[in-house]
Amino acid sequence: MEIRNEDIKKRVNIREIYRYLGYGAKLPDSSVDAMIREVLEDLVNVIQPRNLYKIYTCSTSGTIVVLKGANRTLAFESRNLASNLAQCRQVILIAATLGIGADKLLQKYEILNMTKATLTQACGAACIEAYCNILQEQICEEASSDGQRFYLRPRFSPGYGDLPLEYQKVIFEELECTKRIGLTLTDSLLMYPTKSVSALIGLTSNPQSCHIGKCRDCENLTCEFREPAE
Question: Which of 8, 14, 47, 198 could form a disulfide with 98 if both were Cys (CB 3.0 to 4.6 A apart)?
Fold first, then answer.
């Protein structure tokens, strides 16, 4: 699914960049804000976003999540993931990356300007978040096109909660990430290019607002998936 760089830029939440930089609820001064926007523009001009995804039927039992596809069945063991997907009959397995351009820009700034290097990290995090949000919304819309309306559960990635990082290997093998979009795993199971995401996303027919960017507005303060307070 192709998404334009300009659409990603429009979707970036500038306050998320501030948050990644440690400003919390505060705002940076005008000079820092101008530099953030300059770096964001530089980044958007060099990224080459790519993605892969498949949709599976889903069942959960205790701590086990089973995904059944056309040619293969996958199993994940995680209490947190099973809880996240408990109401879902379908799950999206997804991998997305901004491409090598983001890393090259970061490397350039690490030599020339460490302040801009720090800003590039934050802008990159916001861009991959925006990209994934657009992507999963479009996938959800397509899945709902046959008259059945679906809603999204929060993205759940290996290494989050009690889902072991080892499951990165399962996702990469299933989606053929390296072969198809050049996304690789290091020996420590980190992704390269670095501004990349792999995740499971539940599709549920139960209307809910518990999905993209809603944690800070949600009244469920005891939710185990809630983002930490500022």
Answer: 47
Residue 195 lies in a domain: yes
Output the six-digit token pair for 62.
């205790």
Tokens 């499971």, located at residue = 200
By the 8 A CB rule, do 109 and 116 touch? yes
Q: What is the pLDDT of residues 180-198, one digit of tens each?
A: 999 999 999 999 999 999 9
Indicate whether 225 belongs to any domain: no
Q: How many folded domains does the chain comprise?
A: 1
37: containing domain: 5-217
Full strand arrangement of the beta sheet holding 50-61: 73-77, 64-68, 50-61, 90-97, 196-204, 151-152
Q: Model's pTM, two decimal places?
A: 0.89
The rounded distance, in Å, linking the Cα atoms of 103 and 189 is: 17
Q: What is the DSSP string of 133-161?
A: HHHHHHHHHHHTTTS---EEPPPB-TTST
